[in-house]
Amino acid sequence: MNIEREKEKLQARNFKKFGLDMNIFVSVVTAILVITFIVFTITKPIVSAKFFGEINTFLNINFNWLYVLTINASLAFILFLGFSKFGKIRLGGYTAKPEYSDIAWYAMMFSAGVGIGIFFYGVAEPIYHLNIPTALQSSSNFDNFKVMFLNWGAHAWAIYGLMAIGLGYFSYNKGLPFAIRSLFYPLLKERIYGIWGDVIDTVATLSVLFGLAASLGLGAKQINAGLNYVFGIANASYVQLILIVIITFIATLSVVSGLSKGVKWLSEANLVISGLLLLGVILIGPTTYILATYLSSMGIYLRDIINLGLFTAIEPNDVAWQGSWTIFYWAWWISWAPFVGTFIARISKGRTIKQVALGVLTVPTVAITFAMTILGASGVYVNNLYGGVIEAAIETNIATSMFEMFHYLTDSGLLQGLLSIVSVIAIIIFFITSSDSGSLVVSSLTSGGLENPPKAQRIFWAVIEGTIAIAILLIGGEEALVTIQSAVVILGLPFSIILLMIIFSMSKELKQSYDKYNFNKNVTLKRRLTKISENTKFKE
């Protein structure tokens, strides 16, 4: 079978009018399902919340083991790839070079893979985790932080790394479409170009859209809470609507400018702004307490990482806790894998599998756990010092907990206001980078795997994302936002199976690719020794 010809035939079936280049099945079915979900959610918010909540509960009770298995298998496989001979294989072929500097690469990865969660949950989560299942407890005072590290650390990033390496390998090294369907090539062969491939890309597109819509809804609520706290702007639906419209517009401009301009520039700017904010909190806040908490918590996390990672609840109370936290997060990360994994693959061409595997696991894990410790340890410190003020803020409105912490962190009104304003700016940029990178991914998935889909298509999907967030947040209210979060978690179940299949697919394919790597390495050596002609070709 000629892979390039089949890929051209797939993309030749696309709808190519009005500046669009869309796979009709994926785009139309996605649109119908999204509209159906929105209508059901906003017209029957209580019924839909109950319906999806019951499915969620069923999955937590009966399939928590599958999420645990998938996450740990992904982590083990990524570590194996990073330290094995297969790590020498380069995404894009033997002679490919990275398109972005290390700083730009990490900045874009960080902005797409984390988003608003650091600021939304960073202060609150260590306080929530003061009560954890007995099986996870130790004699340490930092058990709450090690659980937070479990939820946001290496296990989460292993999923993104696995998806990125798989998609990068099959697209850049095998010449398959830049779409999730290509990951199934070893199992489905040419059938990935037919209805089976369309179904796979449709599920992936839905997962990306719902995941982004939920995050945009959370982001709008927290930005509104910050503006209300600092400037007294009303904490109301119409303000959140205006925020989503403005930020979607900016994200649209960014996504039109492409990866090398808008997305790259915003990601690097966000790295600087977030870094300055967190540095400010360290210097103004309880510096020694923050640093001691991080070092101690990281030590306990690394000591207990196997027990933590493999913990699968059986007792009803433990099942409920794990379903609300670890399984919720892991299912969320799994459902986000098509988005973040595809984006990381897009920016990782020219890097070796080892660079991607270890790079995705280490730097983001250290950066995110440190960032959340800065906020979380400050929150715990303030909460203990002022008789539970942060706990009270979390109970009232979790979106305000970070701003409440800033209020008690320093007596200076100027510094309180400055920290709050900078944090709102950082959240807005995270908001924008999530939206623009998500629009690029959705545009690619709905075009049959085009690496650079048309600008009109990127604009279309950026507007759709904003529209979903507005419809869900403003018409359906809080119940609808909870419902869409449940839907995202539910979509994590099929992707658990997909990730396990990716491990199988990669295991089959990498031996053949390593043989090519050895051949090309020998060609390079013999060229240098002038034993063969400079015109001798590398194996692609």
Could you characterize the architecture of this molecule?
With 540 residues, the chain is mainly alpha-helical. It has a single domain, classed as Amino acid/polyamine transporter I (Up-down Bundle), CATH 1.20.1740. It is 78% helix and 0% strand. The chain has 21 helices and no strands. Helix 11 crosses helix 21 and helix 16 crosses helix 21. The longest helix is centred in the C-terminal third of the chain and has 74 residues. The relative contact order is 0.20. The mean pLDDT is 84.
Question: TL;DR of this structure?
Answer:
With 540 residues, the protein is mostly helical. It has helices at residues 3-12, 24-43, 45-62, 64-83, 102-114, 117-121, 125-128, 143-152, 154-173, 185-188, 195-231, 237-257, 259-284, 287-310, 316-324, 326-347, 353-385, 389-396, 401-409, 413-445, 455-528. It contains 21 helices and no strands.
